[in-house]
Structures are given as structure tokens and as C-alpha cells.
Amino acid sequence: MTEENKPNQPEEKKPETGVPGETPKPVSEAPKPAAPAAPKPAVAKPAAPVKEITRRSFISWLAVGWIAFAAGTGGAVMSFVRYLFPNVLFEPPTSFKAGYPDDFLVGRVDERYKNKFGVWIVRNTEGFYALSTVCTHLGCIPNWQPAEKKYKCPCHGSGFYKDGINFEGPAPRPLERFKITLADDGQIQIDKSQTYLFEKGQWSDPDSFLKA
Amino acid sequence: MSVEGFKHLIDSFFSSPSTVFIGSVVGFGLFFAFVRFFTRPLVAGILTAITVGFLAFAVTDKNFFIIVTKPDNVPIVGMLFLLGFFTWLAFRKAVINDLRTEKGEPIIERSEKEEKVFSWPDLVYPEMICMIGLTVLLLVWSILLKAPLEEPANPAAAPNPSKAPWYFLGLQEMLVYFDPWIAGVVLPGLIIFGLMAIPYIDNNPKGNGYYTFKERKFAIITFSFGFIILWIVLIIFGTFLRGPNWNFFGPFEYWDPYKVESLVNVNLSEFVYIKWLGTGLPKFWLTREFLGIILVLAYFAITPLLLAKTVLKKMYLSLGLFRFNIMVFLLLTMMTMPIKMVLRWAFNLKYIIAIPEYFFNI
């Protein structure tokens, strides 16, 4: 008895949910049980005096459903893409004034802007240059080691000379330099949006080096 | 010999990655050459006793103690012992099976299969007891070893040393010898691809459902080399021997962040054009890296031919051209790691091909 009752339950329910005839899904399933169990639809018919769903209207409802689905998904994707571009970015400006040339000692690697802007300002006997504090191997932040006169990366052991040239470890190219100029008020102006790469011969560019 | 002298001896062996790596490769080779000797319970017991004894002596040293008892590292020490035990167990069973087949006796698994038990209660009870035991272990572990929380992250300062999670330390060690693009993307991808390809490459039906070493020597040695030497040993490197600035430290050495190491590295092109020819580097990258490109291409193109003609002739015949080439390509890729490491230690060679203009270095 229980085995016979079980298939009855879904068949009796389906025509009821199919009555509104607006959602395509129950309709698509309704014709299927009709085929194997012939007498059943006759029982259910008095409860469904609505017009029959033809193949044509079913397909048009299906198209509406798919369009709605695509629109909903597309909207969700768009809102996610929008989320990748925040209204406000709490990042320090890429261009900043680093103080007067006399603030820097000759032969010293100045670390005062390392934390805030990611820049080492180095002064040698001829002038100034601004080095990026990002290792060219995998982007860790190296440490300046005054005793050994090198920048040493804690992640994979890359080492750079004071001028940024890579000499040990896996780093494939020297540290990048930023644009360094003298502002109108006599302060050093550093623009991080403009980088100069040694391997492309850009360190000879006048803006990559500030003569004292 | 005094205690300090002994420690110095250990440190001088362990203080360079080349000695430790080559030492472990020699140990690996010895184990497989004398696998029947090393899997004897008495020999394995003596080796374990020596290891435990050394560990007990070593923790009396302050620097060793600091590293080994770090909350992150305690489970790693435990896992090393587990690894040793299960490796031993598998090879022990394999050796016994090989001896039995030599004598014409049935293997262990065949005699075990005769006996059948009920899953309830014979399986479910031990499982429940294991579950309770593991819960107790995790509770005790979480109470005794504190989670290593540190100060808030600062994007402008990297901790020194900066270490990957322990299971990725092999990859981090790989990054010391290769370009990030190769060591971070290509090689890990090929590891996964290669592991997935094993069932399609391997056409040896033996060893299915039972332990054996003799019938699958090539497969077992190759896999063990990749797993034990190129993964586990490198995790040991990264966990216990790599200190500040990613310098290599002996187990009893103080992790001095100002340790002076000269590790000046030179590209192959610089060897060729500056040291040997004395002409200076050519401007155009193709002429500059000509020799390196030829070497790498030859390594991947000519070695399979040589192997198919000589050492792996049988395998070539049984696998066929296509599968053999994939297998040898994966094998050669795996061997680039030890080759590159040895070249770095022996000649300070940085990159065989170095084209920073196009972010391509090998």
C-alpha cells in the first residue's frame, strides 16, 4: 500500500501548483506524469479549469525567465565590479614634499619616509635619488642594513647595494627609482607615479636624480 | 670533545644549505641502496634512539630550544617523527613482501585478506575511540601552545624573517633559486599537473593493493625524491635553518639579523661575456642570453633522447613516445630544482637565462 501511495502525492500536488499558470517550472513538469499514469489527470482536471499551456507560451515564459535570470546575475556581477572601485581610498598621495635638501646627510640612507610613503631617500656626494622600498623579487619590504651597506629582503634573501643595484639572492632587477625634483619652495618633491627602471636605462633620466 | 666543540661541528655542517641538502641526498641514496638493512626494526630503533637522544641533548642549547619550542614549530617536530615512522612502516612491509615473493610465499596482504570482521563494532568502536583521543589531543594542544598572534600588520615593514606557512616553505625555498614567475606559478602548476598525470603515465600494474619496492623501484624512488628531498627537507630548511634576512643558520647558532653573508650572484650571460670573453654584455637580449637559451632547450630536447637510448630504454618501449616524453619532461622539470640549487652554491649562478626586459628568467 505504501508503495502505491507514494507516487500519488506528487501527482496530486502538481496540478494544484500549476493552477496559476504563471511560473513556468511546475508546468514543465506537469505533462510528464500524465504520460505514464493515464487515469490520474482525469481526477485532477476538475480542479484546474484554466486554459492549457501550449508549447509556444511555455517557451516564451522560459525566455522571460532566462532574461530575468540573466539580468539578476548581471546586476549582481556589476555591483561586485563596482565594489572593486571604492569611493574613498585611504592611501597616501603619490606625490609629496620630502623636506629641504639640507635635511639630508651625505652618504646616508634616509628612512623617515619608508613607513608612510615607501621611499628611501639617499644622498651621495653628487645629489639625491628616491628608491622604492619594494623588493623586485616578490614585493616584500627589505631592510636597510647600515653596517653592511645593503638593503636586505627578509623573505627570500635578496640583497641590493645602496644605489639599488641587485647583487645577491633571487631579485632579477634593481630597485625602482621615483621621480625626484626640486619644488618651487626649495623642498624636494617626490612623485611615486613616475618610476625609473635601471634595466631599461632610465636611471640616466634627469628626473630620476636630483643634483645637489 | 667538549659540548661546545660538538655544537660547533654540527653548526659547521648545518650552516650552509649545500652541505645539508647534499647530505640528505646521500642519506636518501644510502637508504634505497641498503633498504633491507635500514628497515630492520633494530636498525630503525637505533636510528630513532640516536635522533631522540640528539634532540634531548640539543634542547639544552638556548638557541635550539627557542626555535624548536616555538608554538608553530612544535607540531612540525612531531610530524617529522610521524613521517619517519610511516616511511619506515611502508618500506618495512614492502621489503617483507619482496622477500616473500622471492621465496615463493604469499604476500602479507593476501594472508590478511582471509580474515573478515564486522564494521560494527570492530571498525566503529576504534573510530570513536580515535575521535575522543584526537579531541583530547587538540584540547591539550590548544591549551599548552598559544596561538602566535603578533602586532597588527604594517604594510611598510615585513617581519624578519618573513616565513610562509610551514607547508609552503618548500615553495619559499624554491623562490630563492628561481624567478617568482617560474617558482611561484610554473613549477607549482607542474607539480599539480604532474601528480594528476601519474595514473595516465604509469602503466605498471604491480603494487596495486599491496606494498612492494622491487616491482616499482623507479616510481617509488622518483616520488620519494620529490616528496622527501624536495618537499620535506626544504620545509626543514625553512622552519629550522632559515633565519633573519633568509640567511642560513646552524641549529645552535644565534639568529643574528646582522650576520654577514656574501652571496653575490652572477648570471650566466655575465660569466660568458664579462669573465670569459671580457667584452661586456651585448645590448640585444637575444645575443646576450644565447648560450643560456641553447642550454635550456638542449636540456629539455636532447636529454629525453639520450635517456630513451640508454638508461630508460625499457621504459621508452613500454610507455610509447607520447607518454614517455611527458614523463621525462616532468622528471626533468623536477630535477631543475636540485640542479639550480647546486649551480647556485657551486658557481653563485643566479639565472641561466636572464631577460628582465620581458620578466623572463630561468
Q: What are the defining features of this structure?
A:
heterodimer; A: 212 residues; alpha+beta; Rieske Iron-sulfur Protein; 7-stranded antiparallel β-sheet; 4-stranded antiparallel β-sheet; 6 helices; 11 strands; elongated; disordered N terminus; B: 362 residues; mainly alpha; two-stranded antiparallel sheet; 17 helices; 2 strands; globular
- End-to-end separation of chain A in angstroms reads 100 Å
Shape field of chain A: elongated
Radius of gyration of chain B, Cα only, in angstroms?
24 Å
SSE series of chain B:
HHHHHHHHHHHHHHHHHEE
Oligomer: heterodimer
Helix content, binned percent of chain B: 55-70%
Overview of the molecule:
The complex is a heterodimer of chains A (212) and B (362). Chain A is an alpha+beta fold and 212 residues long. Chain A folds into 2 domains: 82 residues, no CATH class; 117 residues, Rieske [2Fe-2S] iron-sulphur domain (Rieske Iron-sulfur Protein, 3-layer Sandwich). In chain A, 31% of the residues lie in helices and 21% in strands. In chain A, the strands form 2 sheets. In chain A, strands 1, 2, 3, 4, 9, 10 and 11 form a 7-stranded antiparallel β-sheet that branches. Chain A has a 4-stranded antiparallel β-sheet with strand order 5-6-7-8, with no helix packed on it. The longest helix of chain A has 29 residues. The relative contact order of chain A is 0.10. The N terminus of chain A is likely disordered. Helices cover 67% and strands 1% of the residues of chain B. The mean pLDDT of chain B is 90. Chain B has a domain of 166 residues. Chain B has a two-stranded antiparallel sheet.
